[in-house]
Amino acid sequence: MAYSEKLLDHYENPRNVGSLDKKDATVGTGMVGAPACGDVMKLQIKVNEQGVIEDACFKTYGCGSAIASSSLLTEWVKGKTLDEASQIKNSDIAEELALPPVKVHCSVLAEDAIKAAIDDLKSKQQEKAG
Amino acid sequence: MDYSQSYYELFGLTEKFDINQNALAARYQEFQKALHPDKYANASERERRISLQQAAHINSAFQTLKDPLARARYLLELHSIGLSDENKTIRDPEFLEQQMELREELAEIRHADDPMGSLIAFMQRLDLAIKSSIEQLRQHFAEVTDESLAQCQTLVYQLQFLYRLQQETEALEEELL
What is the C-alpha to C-alpha distance for residues B76 and A104, in angstroms, rounded to an integer? Predict the structure, then answer.
């Protein structure tokens, strides 16, 4: 199977691998898994007071496409507001990395990971406000 | 052969998670004998083709019923609970955190002082986790309610992560040998 250069680049030199303190009130953690292939993905974002994502990182155990999808996503969300980040669609990721059809589910996992991270952050903020 | 029969009916077993493995194996042998290619040496092309199809059907039925995960998936399908969506994602943070830790641990075994020893210990723990999931499946399958079947679905998903991890431990074992 021929993979795109962008995909290989993200797979070979993944950006923003690591983790943030999940107890930090400004950090949102998204933990998702794909039962069909057993991939596990953790995506974390840190927002500033303006609600802009200033840092993002990930850790993924899975195939190259899952790693590339989450790596690309952390690059994309930096500098975005939560609303903007929640607009990112799996099809945008699949298109950018030219994922083959059998690997499209990896981009679905990445989209769900950022959504889960945003949900986690919002529930933390509500807890703080309430 | 009646292809509309369920795998359970085919093997004369009750549609339950707990099955009699001896009965399954015995019935499988009978099928294998009856469908053995030698028996069809002088048969027509068409009869040979039919017997091959039947043997393939029996094989997939046997493999499905023999393996606990495949059997659980099949039982859920019989109860119209689909599991085939490849885009399905789960969000159970506690379980996934645990999976992440296990994968980190496995990745570190490669650099351990005694990789094979560490791997064997890891495999034994994983084996126990798999056995415990299967035991929970058995308990939840004992009653067929929407609630217990939903539990079974969750357990099947979890078991798929454990099986995947097991494949990775086996791959590492090959590498270390």
Answer: 26
The beta-carbon neighbor of B161 closest among A33, A104, A116 is: A33
- Residue A37 appears among annotated catalytic residues: yes
Among B residues 35-74, those touching chain A with beta carbons less than 8 Å apart: none
Task: Average the pLDDT over B101-107 and give the result.
Answer: 95
Is A63 a known active-site residue?
no
What residues does each domain of chain B span? 7-66, 93-176
How many CB atoms lie under 10 A from the CB of residue B92?
15
User: Which architecture characterizes domain B93-176 according to CATH?
Assistant: Up-down Bundle (1.20)
- Rounded (5°) CA angle A113-A115-A116: 65
The pTM score is: 0.90
Fold of domain B7-66: Helix Hairpins (1.10.287)
Q: Find tokens 């990395």 and name the residue.
A: A97
Q: CB of B176 within 8 A of CB of B116? A: yes
The SS3 of residue A27 is strand
CB neighbours (10 Å) of residue B11? 22
In this predicted complex, what is the ipTM? 0.89
- CATH topology of B7-66 equal to that of B93-176? no
B161 CB neighbours in chain A (<8 A) are 33, 35, 38, 40
